[in-house]
# Entry
Amino acid sequence: MLAFCGVPRGRNEVGERFGLKRHNVQKYLNDLVAGGKLKIMIPLSPQCWHQKFVRSDIDVRVLSEENLLEFCRMPRTKAEITEYFGVSCKATLGKYLEPLMRAGKLRHTIPDQPTNRFQKFVSAGRY
# Structure
């Protein structure tokens, strides 16, 4: 399983590859994460449905608060953020952005029009 997770893999991919049922896949993956052999790609939301797992020795872009704020030093669109971190759903990304915005760590570039299609996100220290 560790060799298979040399690139980021989702729960379904792992289950299909090894013929495991859904609850067994989750148990095996959780045990490997707890043991430090695998890491999750989105630590802000470990149980999200599109979570991916990769070997801990592989260097990948993990969607964490620090990495997100660092990436957003320059204004970025949701599409740029999802592509950079490999998150497959822009709508789900909102649940990572909203808490940072409420905390004042992240801001809109067009604050009076939050749903503007040209909206970008920037680290609060930048603007």
Summary: The domain at 4-55 is CATH 1.10.10 (Arc Repressor Mutant, subunit A).
